[in-house]
Structures are given as structure tokens and as C-alpha cells.
């Protein structure tokens, strides 16, 4: 994060607070959030897309303190389950600034969302349209909705997190005609308030041309709807997915670059199709919270394996960061508590779980004198690490410690063995 500095002894500090202090007060492993960094990323998106709406995608990382920060910075919030919705509401997020996603929202989730007055629900299937139409009729409410469409863009990212190709579970296909049918169904029933179309092409995307192709295809459908039904939908949502740098090899776009390209393509296409420019919204998750956190571990063992490489084991692992094992994701690591003049050695940072795939950082050069007791920081762990953390091997999940102006506070406390046992009622 931008608030990280190294002191004269080579120890890292975040917003003026040293990692040693964090270890002493909160223990390891811990996710450390630079709150000003998160807020400034939120503000950068808001400034770049001025006049449009930024929905922070809560799936990347959600807790009440982050909901409040997002609210204070004037962003909107995207939730995709009843649990995320409950977290948002309990933190006081204004419901009209919440969007509700998901390909299989239950009747009870939909009902709660409608009762809470969420600003919009992004509908994802004909079953859901039926369910929501019935609910809205019964409650006599005109719920605002967007229709999620898949535009057939092959986003260059891991296949599990690419979402706009045809053969996957999300949305209504534009090419296959389902999207147009879904729109017609909503317009014919005239119970739901159809505000626009939504497309999300995937996650950790660097090539912004994917968003341009998506915008073009969504707007072509918008024009088709206008021609066939005489309705100009006022909004368009192009989703999230903006890539961040996990290693020095990654070169992400800034919010300003993204805004330039996305706003321009929407303007140009609308001019070409003779459409009024709709209000745009986007849903960045990773790009706001990912770089704002790092994980602080303590090294437990250092093992040289037949001269191949050195395995450096830390006190967490795949339970606090599954992304390396799941997506073959790349991370970096650095000795955080001190400087070293020792030569670099090729190291693999691994966790304490009982399988060999329990890797946090595949390849990293660490100083040859790395040793038990050293602190290790892994940057870029704000998104999809705590939110995808598990209790594998009955390892309690780490806390999230937020630092701002030299002061730290726990915003998600460390799980305890008592927490784990509390669920075990047999
Ligand atoms: N909007 C929708 C509809 C989404 O499905 C997602 C992410 C986002 C926005 C936010 O995408 P972001 O800006 O954070 O890339 N667990 C995976 C990522 C899954 C993303 C799922 N949807 C990972 O760790 O890479």
C-alpha cells in the first residue's frame, strides 16, 4: 500500500506504525489494511468516473468498517448474498446505494432485499425474474432491476474468473437471444422497473479492450430494444474486473485510463447508434481493496531442499490465501522486520497446512539469512484472501488490522479455537 515505508533499520511501517508493533499487539498472521490507501483508491475511481456510479464489489473483502469507509467516500456497494447484504445494512449503508447480484438468489434473499429497499437487483435468470415479479406484485413495489447479459468476450484471465464467454452460469446470452427475451419479459409484465443492462466480463483483466467490446455489444442490444420496443434504457453497468499488480511484471491501468477509454467508447457508440448516453456504473472490488492490504506472517522453519530451493514456512498458508493454489496466482514476499545484506536465494513461501499445494508465494528471492522469527510481508492480499479464507486443518482465520495515522484498530478480530469449537455441537 502507498502508506508503507521502511525505516533506517529496514523495518516496514504502515501509516507510521511498525510491523514489529503490529506483531507485538495483534500477533501473526494478520491482514494489515492501510485505510487511507483504500480510501484514496475509492476516491480515484470516483473522481475519474465523475457523474457515474462506482459500486465497490464487496465480495473482494467486506466488513462493517470497510462498508462505512465506502459509504463515507460516496461509493455504492455491490453485494451478492444475503450475508453480504446483512453486513452492509448492519453497517448503515443506505439501501438505495446497494446493488444485489447473484445467479441463484433465494426467495428469502430477494424478499429481504426488496424489503430493505435496495437500489437495484441485477437479475440473472428467467426463474429469478418470475420470483422477483411475484414478490414485487405481492408487496406492491416497483423494484428497480438491471438485466445481466453475457456478451461473448473472451477475457484473458484464469478460466474460473472469466465470466463473459457463452458457456458459463451467469447472465443471459446476447448472441443467443436470451438477453433480449429477458428484457421483453420484464417489459411485458411491467411490474419491475427495468433500468438497464449489466455486463461483467471477468476479473484481474489488464487488456481494457475487453471492456470496449463489451460496451459495444451491450449498447447494440440497447439499440435493438429501442427499435423493437420503443424504450431507451437509462443505465448501463460494465462490471468490475480491473487488474492490479501482484508482482512487478503486472502493469495495471489507472482509474483515469479506464475512465477515458470506457466513457469514450460509450459516448462514441451512443452517437453512432443515436442513443442518449446512459448513466454508466462500474463495480471494482480488487482494484480498490487488493493493494491496500498485506499479510504479515512469521517465519517458522527454513528448509533447504537438496539445493533446489529453500522452503520458508510461515504461520498461515492456503487457509488465509487460497489464490495461489486455486488460480496459480503470483505474489511476492519480503522480509519485513529488518534489512539484510545477505545474498538472495530462491525461496518458496509455504504455509502450515498438510498438503504440498499449500503455497503462498511460488518463487521469490529472499535474503539467505532468512530465519525463524523473521516477519514476512506478502503484499496485495486485500482482495479475495480474507473473503475466501477457510478453517482448513482447523486453523483460526487471521484478524484484519486497520492502520490510519499511526493508529491501529482491529476491524475483524482473530478467530479463536473456541470459535471453531462453538460450531461443533455434536
Ligand atoms: N461485479 C461482478 C458482477 C462480479 O462478479 C465481480 C467479481 C466483480 C464485480 C468484482 O470484480 P473485481 O473488480 O474484484 O475483479 N475469487 C477470484 C475473483 C472472483 C471475482 C468474482 N466476481 C479471485 O480471487 O481472483
Automatic annotation (TrEMBL):
The enzyme's E.C. designation: 4.1.1.20
Active-site feature positions: 354 (proton donor)
Modified residues (N6-(pyridoxal phosphate)lysine): 59
Keywords: Amino-acid biosynthesis, Decarboxylase, Lyase, Lysine biosynthesis, Pyridoxal phosphate
Residue ranges occupied by any Orn/DAP/Arg decarboxylase 2 N-terminal domain in the UniProt entry: 36-290
PROSITE patterns: ODR_DC_2_1 (PS00878), ODR_DC_2_2 (PS00879)
Reaction it catalyzes: meso-2,6-diaminopimelate + H(+) = L-lysine + CO2
GO biological process, one term: lysine biosynthetic process via diaminopimelate
UniProt binding sites for pyridoxal 5'-phosphate: 241, 283-286, 384
One function term, GO molecular function aspect: diaminopimelate decarboxylase activity
Family per record: Belongs to the Orn/Lys/Arg decarboxylase class-II family. LysA subfamily.
Description of how the protein assembles with itself and partners: Homodimer.
Name under which the protein is recorded: Diaminopimelate decarboxylase
Organism: Asanoa ferruginea
Lineage of source species: Bacteria, Bacillati, Actinomycetota, Actinomycetes, Micromonosporales
Gene: lysA
Amino acid at each position: 500500500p502507498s502508506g508503507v515505508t521502511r525505516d533506517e533499520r529496514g523495518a516496514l511501517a504502515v501509516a507510521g506504525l511498525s510491523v514489529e508493533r503490529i506483531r507485538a499487539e495483534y500477533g501473526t498472521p494478520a491482514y494489515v489494511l492501510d485505510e487511507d490507501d483504500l480510501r484514496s483508491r475509492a476516491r480515484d475511481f470516483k473522481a475519474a468516473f465523475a457523474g457515474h456510479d462506482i459500486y465497490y464489489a464487496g465480495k473482494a473483502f467486506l466488513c462493517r468498517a470497510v462498508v462505512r469507509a465506502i459509504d463515507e467516500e460516496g461509493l455504492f456497494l455491490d453485494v451478492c448474498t444475503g450475508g453480504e447484504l446483512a453486513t452492509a445494512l448492519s453497517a448503515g449503508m443506505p439501501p438505495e446505494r446497494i446493488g444485489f447480484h447473484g445467479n441463484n438468489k433465494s426467495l428469502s434473499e430477494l424478499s429481504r432485499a426488496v424489503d430493505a429497499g435496495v437500489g437495484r437487483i441485477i437479475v440473472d435468470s428467467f426463474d429469478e425474474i418470475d420470483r422477483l415479479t411475484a414478490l414485487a406484485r405481492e408487496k406492491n413495489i416497483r423494484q428497480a432491476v438491471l438485466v445481466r447479459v453475457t456478451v461473448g468476450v473472451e477475457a484473458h484471465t484464469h478460466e474460473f474468473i472469466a465470466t463473459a464467454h457463452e458457456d458459463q452460469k451467469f447472465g443471459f446470452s446476447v448472441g443467443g437471444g436470451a438477453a433480449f427475451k429477458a428484457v421483453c419479459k420484464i417489459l411485458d409484465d411491467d411490474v419491475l422497473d427495468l433500468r438497464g443492462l449489466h455486463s461483467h466480463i471477468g476479473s484481474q483483466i489488464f487488456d481494457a479492450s475487453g471492456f470496449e467490446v463489451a460496451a459495444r455489444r451491450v449498447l447494440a442490444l440497447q439499440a435493438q430494444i429501442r427499435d423493437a420496443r420503443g424504450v431507451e434504457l437509462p443505465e448501463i453497468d460494465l462490471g468490475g474486473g480491473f487488474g492490479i499488480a501482484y508482482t512487478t511484471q503486472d502493469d495495471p491501468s489507472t482509474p483515469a485510463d479506464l475512465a477515458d477509454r470506457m466513457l469514450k467508447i460509450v459516448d462514441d457508440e451512443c452517437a453512432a447508434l443515436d442513443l442518449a448516453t446512459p448513466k454508466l456504473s462500474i463495480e471494482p472490488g480488487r482494484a480498490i481493496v487488493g493493494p491496500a492490504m498485506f499479510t504479515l506472517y512469521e517465519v517458522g522453519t527454513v528448509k533447504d531442499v537438496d539445493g533446489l530451493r529453500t522452503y520458508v514456512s510461515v504461520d498461515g498458508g492456503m487457509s488465509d490465501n487460497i489464490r495461489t493454489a486455486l488460480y496459480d496466482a503470483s505474489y511476492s514476499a519480503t522480509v519485513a522486520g529488518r534489512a539484510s545484506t545477505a545474498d538472495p536465494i530462491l525461496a518458496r513461501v509455504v504455509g502450515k497446512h498438510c498438503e504440498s499445494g499449500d503455497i503462498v508465494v511460488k518463487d521469490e528471492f529472499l535474503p539467505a539469512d532468512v530465519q525463524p522469527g523473521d516477519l514476512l510481508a506478502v503484499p496485495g492480499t486485500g482482495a479475495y484472501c480474507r473473503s475466501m479464507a477457510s478453517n482448513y486443518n482447523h486453523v483460526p482465520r487471521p484478524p484484519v488490522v486497520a492502520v490510519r495515522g499511526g493508529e491501529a484498530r482491529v476491524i475483524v478480530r482473530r478467530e479463536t479455537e473456541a470459535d471453531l469449537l462453538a460450531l461443533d455441537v455434536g
